Amino acid sequence: MIIEYLGHSAFLIKGEKSVVLDPFKSIGYDMQKVTCDYCLSSHNHFDHNAFDRVNCSKIAAQADGVTPVGFEGINLSRIKTYHDDKMGKLRGENYVSVFKIDGVTFAHLGDLGEADNQRLIAALNGVDVLFIPVGGTYTINALAAKNYCQRIKPKIIIPMHFKTEKSTVDIAPIEEFLKLFDDFKKVENPINFNINQYTYPQILVFDYAKF
To answer: Which of 96, 106, 157, 203 is 20 to 30 A off residue 194, Cα-Cα?
Structure first.
């Protein structure tokens, strides 16, 4: 299986099926155009729903609701959350995507803005790979992200939605999150991913120099 970080909150996962998560544009740079089987978008903001950057046969957008059809190939389920801590009054809804590729269960939190969603923690408990926003301002901040990681207990933690050199989004750099932990592993981008090669839990930091 291949996992490629495409910048911001976007990833391409390629195994028996291929999935793109939260495609974006116009954040100081645009996401490269990619091809995949499925595209999953957490919410309808331009930096998470740039479908013109993706060539695929099936898209799950926010309007498709919690349980969109046609995604049996990845056993997709979605959990409605909020983009803020005020029940969506500031920035609306956010959909967490949970899916499986090659026997590995992934959860992508999108722009989760709730600092302590007990229902979400229970639903994701023990997930294999957790993509989690860490930059604050529009999402949970580094401390809230650490709390989710400690309570969900994923095998692999992949931080996203943080400030980079080219990004114009007003969010914190990844170092604010990483300094809360004793250990993390920097990896190339993309990586040939084998979940059995890591000691759990493991934070993977993808090379983001070009972003």
So the answer is: 96
Which residues neighbour 90 within 8 Å (Cβ) at sequence distance 6 or greater?
83, 84, 113
For residues 152 and 50, what is the distance between their CA atoms, to the nearest angstrom?
A: 29
Burial of 37 (0-12, 13-18, 19+ CB in 10 A): middle
CB 19 within 8 A of CB 36: yes
CB 205 within 8 Å of CB 159: yes
Domains in the chain: boundaries = 2-206
**CATH C-level class of 2-206:** alpha beta
Walk along the chain (211 residues) and give the pLDDT tens digit of each residue.
999 999 999 999 999 999 999 999 999 999 999 999 999 999 988 899 999 999 998 999 866 666 778 898 999 999 999 998 888 888 889 999 999 999 999 999 999 999 999 999 999 999 999 999 999 999 999 999 999 999 999 999 999 999 999 999 999 999 999 999 999 999 999 999 999 999 999 999 999 999 9
